[in-house]
Amino acid sequence: MADEPYRRFASLAASAAFVTLAVILMWLSAGGWDLSGSKGTAMKSELCNHTRHLPDGRDLFQMVCAFGGTERAFSGIHDHKEFNGSGVYRCACCGAPLFPLDAKFNSGTGWPSFTAPVTDAMGYRKDILQYGSTEVHCSTCGAHLGHVFDDGPPPTGLRYCINSACLWYDEFASAIVAASSPWILNAYLVLLLLTGCCASCCVFSKHAVVVAQPYLQKPKADRVDVEATPVPRANAFADA
User: Fold this and answer.
1) C-alpha–C-alpha distance, residues 196 and 19, integer Å
2) Of 33, 49, 93, nearest to 67 (Cα)?
3) Counting beta carbons within 10 angstroms of the beta carbon of residue 150, is it exposed (0 to 12), middle (13 to 18) or buried (19 or more)?
4) Short-list 91, 93, 110, CA closest to 159
5) Residue 144: phi, psi to the nearest 5?
6) Superfamily of chain region 34-185
7) How confident is the model over 4-26, as pLDDT tens digits?
8) Where is the MsrB domain (predicted)?
9) Which residue in the list 161, 197, 198, 202 is annotated as catalytic?
10) 174 or 230: which carries more pLDDT confidence?
11) What does the pLDDT average to over 172-191?
């Protein structure tokens, strides 16, 4: 029992090391780990065209694109329009091309959905408050757009779920689709990662205790044998 505190310390140290390593690997592979979730997007307002007409309203645009909010499902104008043609969806802030019209599909979710963006149009960051989902933002101005999931149709298998308030439709432009697949971390991969970390910590902590045992043992005090002195028993038949 004397070694129990050291075992706990080794287990906690191993857990911290593996969690730190996991966060670093995800940060390097995804271009950033957003510890605050999708709230407070770093949108460069100086790049915005503040005179452009926004069909969904400027207040909603600010709430979604600048502060990382989400519009109500089935409320955006671009959810149920523009399914035929050759135009391009642009960023409502800076006007950079984001999605060609032929990448749009009806997902039934209530938000405009696309299979692939224009080349280099997207920036990605992990949203820890959404069970490890991947947030997408405009790579030009940083405006929050929505999220990307791995449940889309072929050929990419991706679903870019975008807020309508972040888009404006340019029917006279065209762009090339880049069917690139970002590194997506969904809830199942998060669960698998945590399970692996816990199992590794259990194995690592046992080895750590064995290796550190000679250094963690406390010196024992010298044993002193004390001879017991017999205690005389009272004479039960002593004279009153």
Assistant:
1) 10
2) 93
3) middle
4) 110
5) -65, 135
6) Peptide methionine sulfoxide reductase. (2.170.150.20)
7) 666 666 667 777 777 676 655 55
8) 46-172
9) 161
10) 174
11) 55
Q: Where, residue-wise, is CATH 2.170.150.20 in the chain?
A: 34-185
Cis peptide, bond prior to residue 155, ω within 30 of zero: yes
Between 212 and 134, name the one with better pLDDT: 134
Map residue 153 onto helix, strand or coil: coil
Non-local (6+) Cβ contacts of 211 within 8 A are none
Which among 227, 223, 207 is positioned nearest to 14, based on CA atoms? 207
For 125-167, how does the pLDDT look when each residue is reduced to its tens digit (9 = 90+)? 876 555 557 889 998 998 999 999 989 999 899 999 999 999 9
Specify whether 161 is catalytic. yes
Q: What residue type is 41 in one-letter code?
A: T
Task: Tell me the pLDDT tens digit for each residue of 32-87.
Answer: 344 444 444 567 776 677 677 777 778 888 888 888 889 999 998 888 776 667 78
Question: How many C-beta atoms surround the C-beta of residue 81 within 10 A?
Answer: 12
Query: Phi-psi bin for 221: left (phi > 0), alpha (psi -120 to 50), beta?
Result: beta
Give the chain's largest Cα–Cα span. Answer: 125
Specify the amino acid at residue 236: A
Please give, one letter per residue, the 3-state secondary structure of 2-40. CCHHHHHHHHHHHHHHHHHHHHHHHHHHHCCEECCCCCC
Model-level pTM? 0.59
Question: What is the sign, positive or negative, of the torsion defined by CA atoms of 128, 130, 132, 134?
Answer: negative
Which residue, 93, 77, 82, 97, is CA-closest to 173?
A: 97
The residue among 60, 116, 59, 110 whose CA lies nearest residue 88 is: 116
